[in-house]
Amino acid sequence: MNELRLGTVEMKFAEAVWNSAPLPSGELVKLCKAELGWSKSTTYTVLRRLCERGLFKNDNGVVETLIDKNEYFAKKSATVVENDFGGSLPAFISAFTSGKKLTEKEIDEIQDMIDAFRRGDENA
Hints:
Blueprint (H helix, E strand, L loop, with lengths): L7 H13 L2 E2 H12 L3 H13 L3 E4 L2 E4 L3 H17 L3 H9 L6 H16 L5
Antiparallel strand pairs: 1-3, 2-3
């Protein structure tokens, strides 16, 4: 994925595609008109841009995802950790949680993830 950063408008569009794909491009135009108030040309411009970035493809009038929502956020998060925290996940977590009180449930979920990684569970 060439450009991981999506603006607010692009993210709304991406969410619509992720929630509906695969779908005919004409249906996407209708969806964007209803949900975003966009014209046909705006829809196709944003679609082209996100296809160029490798998120979606428009093949014979059918819009499909190349990267699903979870994969997008995983790659985006990995880029933030790498670029802003020197690749250190502990530094990222420390910054993310500083000044924030974690709930017992959040702490348990994090501990479960750590335990799964230690076991080598690929679904962690």
